[in-house]
Amino acid sequence: MKKTETIVQKLITVIDNKDILEAACGGAEFSNAASAYARSVSCIDLDDSRLHLADPNTVQFEIMDAAQMRYADETFDTVFLYNAFAHVQSQWEAIETECRRVLKPDGSIYIIATWKVDIALMRDLFGDRAEWNGAFFIVRIDKNR
Ligand SMILES: C[S@@+](CC[C@H](N)C(=O)[O-])C[C@H]1O[C@@H](n2cnc3c(N)ncnc32)[C@H](O)[C@@H]1O
């Protein structure tokens, strides 16, 4: 099983039948894996150079800055960042604000990492709020907290 398929299974309760967004999606491997279960999958990146959508009808990709999203308020149940934290860390304050804005009231942001560079930065910023779940280092940020 691919890593992205494994993490989708671990977080299935916040993916299954939900409207989800992957920010800074790169190749969109996480979005592809989640699309087997989610009600809708949107994913964004600053460019599409690595994009490889398994099915463009199932995953809606747009070129968009995660710090300035064009989505309406309260669009998504869950927002994911997968192995992307090091790339967005310098803009994290603005990106977190935007992720909270596009989340529905009970929604959550999940920052997921398997790479050392992301893990180290997440430890620095989030401390004990970051936890291991198998091979995945995860921070959950609830909108209403
Ligand atoms: C490590 S890469 C790809 C991560 C991807 N989730 C994966 O698993 O392949 C990180 C990505 O973050 C994107 N990125 C950086 N800043 C961004 C921003 N402000 N808004 C959207 N995407 C951004 C980069 O373009 C890059 O594709």
How is this structure best described in words?
The chain is α/β, with parallel strands linked by helices and 145 residues long. Helices cover 28% and strands 31% of the residues. It has a single domain, classed as 3-Layer(aba) Sandwich (Rossmann fold). S-adenosylmethionine binds next to helix 2, strand 2 and helix 3.
Write a brief structural summary.
The chain is α/β, with parallel strands linked by helices. The chain has helices at residues 3-10, 29-34, 85-88, 92-102, 116-126, and strands spanning 19-23, 40-45, 59-63, 76-82, 103-113, 130-133, 136-142. It has one domain (3-142): Vaccinia Virus protein VP39 (Rossmann fold, 3-Layer(aba) Sandwich), CATH 3.40.50.
What brief labels describe this structure?
5 helices; Rossmann fold; binds S-adenosylmethionine; 145 residues; alpha/beta
User: How many strands in all?
Assistant: 7
Let me know the largest β-sheet: 7 strands, mixed
> What form results from the Cα inertia axes?
globular
Heterogens: S-adenosylmethionine
| Annotated CATH topology | Rossmann fold
- Calculate the terminal CA-CA distance, rounded to whole Å: 34 Å
Please tell me the total number of domains.
Answer: 1
Q: How much helix is in the residues?
A: 25-40%
User: What's the number of helices?
Assistant: 5
